[in-house]
Amino acid sequence: MPPSDAHAGTTGLGQPGATGQIAVAAPPERVYALVTDLRVLAELGEEVRAHRWVGRPGAAVVGARFRGSNRRGARRWRTTARVTAADPGRCFAFEVSSGPLPVSVWRYEIRAAADGGCLVVESTWDRRPRWFRGLTALATGVRERTAVNDHNIARTLSRLKERAER
Questions:
Q1: I need a surface site. Which of 81, 90, 105, 151 has the fewest CB within 10 A?
Q2: pLDDT computed for residue 141 by the predictor
Q3: Contacts from 58-65 at CB under 8 Å and sequence distance 24+?
Q4: Where exactly are the transmembrane stretches of this chain (predicted)?
Q5: For the chain, give me the number of helices (H) and strands (E)?
Q6: CA-CA distance, 39 to 148, in Å (whole number)?
Q7: How far is the C-alpha of 147 from the C-alpha of 20, rounded, in Å?
Q8: Mean pLDDT of the chain
Q9: How confident is the model at residue 1 (pLDDT cuts 50, 70, 90)?
Q10: Global pTM?
Q11: What pLDDT sits at residue 3?
């Protein structure tokens, strides 16, 4: 399978609702390995408690699926994700759903730097139907999802940097 484009899985979605970036003093391949390890990705995130691959191939390849267990305070919810881009050292993206309803798209874009490190850009697009947003706000306790995602992305990227630079 040819490598995916850095924007694969997000083409046609417009500008992300929330995004952040951080310089990491680690090679792009190391950062990619961390964000595609579902156990590590759950450790880095703010609301994610666990991820697990569903079925085969059980790895970060386009089309692979994984389930997420999420928590914010006493509220808990589950989601399913499908990998839409998996280009080692460059890009990992997935779309999240709740049952048949789209929830979001997440992308980690990794850009090699001249010093051997990289710049990591984490972005998300809210894909929930308007009528579904109120229900998800009740389920998650989050009314201002974009602001919360901006905060969560900053925290996730900070943890990713710390982990990758160890």
A1: 151
A2: 79
A3: 60/36, 60/86, 60/92, 61/1, 61/86, 62/1, 62/4, 62/8, 62/86
A4: none
A5: 4, 7
A6: 22
A7: 12
A8: 91
A9: very low
A10: 0.90
A11: 39
Record the tokens describing residue 136, joined without a space. Answer: 């998800």
The tokens describing 101, both together, are 């309803």
Contact 85, 92 (CB under 8 A): yes
Half-sphere exposure for 40 (CA within 13 Å, toward CB): 15
Alpha helix (H) ranges present in the chain? 28-35, 38-44, 130-140, 145-165
Q: Cα–chain-centroid distance for residue 66?
A: 12
Tokens (6 digits) for 130: 């308007």
b/e map of 83-113 (b: 16 or more CB within 10 Å)?
A: bbbbbebbbbbbbbbbeeeebbbbbbbbbee
Q: Where are the domains of the chain?
A: 18-165
CATH superfamily of 18-165: START domain (3.30.530.20)
DSSP string for residues in 17-35: SEEEEEEESS-HHHHHHHH
Integer Cα distance of 130 and 113 in angstroms: 39
What Rg value do the Cα atoms of the chain yield, rounded?
Answer: 15
Q: Which token pair is 64?
A: 């692979």
Alpha carbons 70 and 147: distance in angstroms, whole number: 18
What's the confidence (pLDDT) of residue 9? 60
Q: Please tell me whether residue 150 adopts helix, strand or coil conformation.
A: helix
